[in-house]
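Hey L., structure's done. Input below.
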Amino acid sequence: MLLIRPIPQPGESRQGYLLRVTDANALGSPTRLCTIFDSRDHPCPTSGGMRGPVAWLGHLSSPDPQGLPGRYWNTRQPRYCPVCLQRSPIWQALWQLVFYVACHVHRTDLVETCPECLRPLRWARGELMACECGADLRAGPTRASAPGRLRISSAIADAWQHDLIGNSDTTSGRIEAVMHRVWLLGAYGVGLTRRAQKLAHLQRLEAAGNVVDAAAAALDHWPAGFFALLDDVAAKYGNAGTTRLTDRFGGLYREVFAASRKEAFADLRAGFESYVLQRWPGQLAARNRRLSQSAIEEHVWIPVSKAAKELHWRPQRVRSAIERGLLQGRLVERASGRVSGVVHSSSLARLKADASTWMDLVRACESLHIGKKAAKRLMAAGQLPAIAGPDIDGHPVWQFRREAVDALGALNALESRRTRPPLSPYGERFETRLPPSSSDMVPCRHTDAISRTLVTEQ
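Output:
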C-alpha cells in the first residue's frame, strides 16, 4: 500500500504521474510499484505502454481515451521543458507526442538530456525533477525554437486541448488529423523512404525535429512550400515516363485524397488541385474520382486524342505537330511501345486558329495564278513552304499558311511591275519592236501559193 497518493493534475502524463508517485513514496524506481499493483484488479503499471493523460491511480493501465495510434506517442524517451518544470512540477502528457518538439508557451525547444551529465533521461529513475546523476532538470539551459516548429507545436496543442474538452466528433479527433498531417508531409519531406508509414527513431528529438521541420517547410509560404514538396516527391519517387498521378506521387496522392481525410485534408486537397492546374504536364482522366470535376475541366493539359478531335486531325498528326514544335506538348513512350501524350490548351487554341487560315494547293495556285507544276517547283526551291503535306506530317493534302502565299504573291507582283515598259503620253506602253531578219522569217504555204501564181501570169 502506498503511503502518499498525489492527486493527478490536468494534462499530466501517466508516466510522469507514476514517477511522481515513486518520488513521493521514496521507492527509488517506478518498477517497485509492480509489487503494489500485482493483482488482477490493478495490473502492474509498466512505463513502456502508458499513453495519454492520467485521471486517477487505477487509470494508469487503461487505454488512451483519445484513441491515438501508438506511432504518435513517445513512451521511451522522456522530454521536458525546463521553464515549465520551474513553474509546475508536472510532467505534461503533451510532451510525449512525437511531433511536439517545442514548448509553444515558452517558445523553446524541448530537452531530452541531463544538463550536467548530458545523458538521455530515463523513466526508470527515483526523482521526478532530477537526473540519475542528481542534477536538477529545472536548472538546464533553454534554446529558442524555430518559427516552423512553434507553429506545428501550437497546432498540436490546440488540437490536443480541443479533444480534451470533448469537442471531438471522431474516435481520435482533431489531434490525430494534425499528427497524421505532420507525419505525411514530414516523411516525404525528409526523403527517408518511399512510404510515409515507415519512420523510425521518432523518440529521439533530432529525428522527430527533422520531420517537423520538413512538414513546416511544406506548410509555410502556402502554397509555394507545398508545391516544392510535390516537385521533390515526383523527382525522387515518381516514374518520369508516365502521365498518371498515382505513378508520379504514389502514396502521398492516395493519402491526401483518402475518403476518411476529406475534411481534415481539405486544404491539402485544394493545394494539390492547384498544383495540378498550374504545373502538372500530364493528362487527367475524365473518370478520375479523387480530383474535383472543376479541376479536371480547367486542367490546361489535355490528351492527344482530345486535341485530335478538336482539330479534326488524326492522333498521329497531332504527335507530329508536337515533335515539330507547332504544339506545346509532351510525348511518353510506354513499355508496350505505345506513344501517348498531352497538349497545352493555350497552344492548341493558337494552332486551331492558325489552321483555320491554311489553304490547300489548289487555292494557293489560284491565288498565285500559277499551275500545280509551277507551285511544286516553288516548293522545291523553298519559295513556297508547306506547313502540312505527305512528306511533312503524313497529311494527304498539301497545305500552306495564307501569310506565306500572300507574301509570295506580293513579291511576284513587285517583280512584274519592275519588268514592264514605261507608259506613253497617251497612256499606252512603249514597246520597242525591231524588224525581223530574214533568218527569223518562216515561210508558209500561203506565201508559196502567191509566188507560183505570179510566175504563171508572167
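The longest helix spans residues 147-164. Residues 453-458 have pLDDT under 50 and may be disordered.

-- N.
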